[in-house]
């Protein structure tokens, strides 16, 4: 799905701001049929949970309603008119006046509706969007709903971050000509000093198509005819980590000699490859340094905020980070575009987090329900997962910053049924995009001996917490466990290994002269122990600390004001570990330590 853009043939109107807001049960069952009778207003984009002081809103399970008036610009007569919702977490329904025009399940990918037949240029209409936050065993991410003795519906889920909901990203009106571009797919390669650009264009109706490639200064450097083909850019400037360079593919739909529609898609020329135990970008070994992150800020929840976007990237640059993983869902498109422009490498992850009922038993190994079964996570869950994967690839396929797809976070990959669940998804991912490697992050329960799916993927990505959840406070033992574990994965699979998560909860300002968990000194020593091990394992190609910043979680006695594994606080103040990472990563500069050989 193309991101709405203002072009010579298209116009764009943002609908962000304050919307009337109500929780289901406080308004009629069909609130779209009239003006919402509510004193509440909610900000868009933002999660609604932390906006209000009423706990019944924060803890609500079910639907909420947003409403506002919108006006179609009078100059849009004769154009197709679209309404686009960048995300509705986790389910959305859109009404134009009294008419349902769009429905979508999945909280982190966009959806849109052609509303041309329901509105008129120059006139207002009533726009109502319902958002449902319910998670079940057939949603991605999954969850369960229980009913308390007093009748309150309660949402339970298996992921360790707060289930923020609402319209966390922007809502748009945009126009397009009657015959217009509907999708563009770009693949790039390198042929000596030249770059090759393969393209495929889809249009709303058959029409002649031509393309032009513009460099960063706006000069035309290549052109082509037809809805698909390959063009060459002589003396190409490659997109590189830390040195981004973007071209623009101008796609034009023709009506005789006139341009009926024009759409420009930014792209970078680069290659990605896994060769043996190396991860290569443009044929050169790349070593990942960075973080697992979250879209999480005070008050806004998962609401996108450009100020935090800029500051977070500044902090990543300050630490020397060159990459991050979109844990544990696709981030806002603005984040991906910013990474494209600033040369930050991205591992792009689906929202498949929590596909692991073994956590019910914990590290003690108590009995738990089977993860993979028709009653828990079966064919219907996998179909929802596949739909989410299709939408993620369709949205992010042209971003040069995206170098790998991550299909799931910490699934129960050692349980019977895991291979049957994931094998079709891996095949689908390779069909959707044969140009990028695939991974998933393996939970602590999955070892090199019992994991059932790692051979299906290109890169081994491990989440490990030796020294925190295992061998707590004993970093000497943790170092031995970690190195033994990593070497076993390397020996069995012979693939590149990335540490997708490693970290220790840390209360800012808590200090000790001993290795005491929760202190800033322990977090720093914990990370340094991991780095010693990483530098000794030849197959190791990357380190993503968990987490960039502290973040909100669900209620639990093992969490005090959220997850504190961030090297920055939730309001982005550095802990001691941030300074230690900066010293290491600035020296590495995206290269594996030379001591490895």
Automatic annotation (TrEMBL):
Gene3D superfamilies attached to this UniProt entry: Galactose-binding domain-like, Glycosidases, Immunoglobulins
Pfam families to which the protein is assigned, alphabetical: Glyco_hydro_2, Glyco_hydro_2_C, Glyco_hydro_2_N
The enzyme's E.C. designation: 3.2.1.31
Domain Glycosyl hydrolases family 2 sugar binding per the UniProt entry, residue ranges: 15-177
Keywords: Glycosidase, Hydrolase
Keyword Hydrolase among UniProt keywords: yes
Record-annotated Glycoside hydrolase family 2 catalytic domain positions: 272-587
Recorded family membership: Belongs to the glycosyl hydrolase 2 family.
Protein name: Beta-glucuronidase
Gene from which the chain derives: uidA
